[in-house]
Structure formats: structure tokens, C-alpha cells
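User: You have something folded?
Assistant:
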Amino acid sequence: MAGVLVVDDDPDVKFVVSLVLKRSGHDVVTAGTGQAALEIAAREMPDAVILDWVMPGLFGPEVCRRLRAMPGGDRVAVMMLTVRVGEGDMEAAFRAGADDYMIKPFGHEEFVARVEGMLARAARPGSDPDRWP
């Protein structure tokens, strides 16, 4: 796939996020459920996943955990894009393996900058996602 997978059950959010990413030159594929996202990732692992928290079936953190357990899933940049604002929610997302966390509604320029930053870090040769910086 070599692009960005946008996962959200809200078609309007999915449309806006996809449009913003496409206008910035990214290839985008979408999914409306966590299960559909995992099926897409199993066929061809994306470079990045933009993941909603609350969806039918699997919630975002569980999708993130399962994605990370897949072959190559440790190299995917994952951003949780959600309305959940609690500190505990952010902690749970990071513990599940998310690289970034952004709250809806969001500024388009900041969103693109964060996605491109995640992609740049993930693309570094020999990069170790568990090592800071």
C-alpha cells in the first residue's frame, strides 16, 4: 500500500481527513471499522494509520495493539485522532502503541505536519521506535 490508512466510522471525518492528506500528496485508503483496517493491513502494510478511538467492533487502542503484533506492524506510524480528551485516554493510546494523539476537531496544517513528522521518523534507516530521540 505504501500510503496512509484512515480508519473512522464517521464518513464525514473520513472524507475530510482523506482530502487533507491527498491535498498534501499522500496516497490514502480508508476503512470504517477496526476489523476492516486490520484486513487491509494484513494484505499490504501502510506507512501510517490514522485511527479513531470509538468504532463498531474493535476500539482504536485494540486495533493499534493488533496492528503492532502483525509482521511489519512495528514500523507503521500510528496516530489516534479522536474526541476523547482525558489524560487516561491518551495514556491508554500510547500504551497500545500509538505514536501520536490528536483531538478532533483539528487544525489541518498541524495535522499534516504531525503525520509527515511521524512518517519521517518511521522512514529513518535503522530507526528504533522504542528509542528516544
The chain has one domain: 4-121.
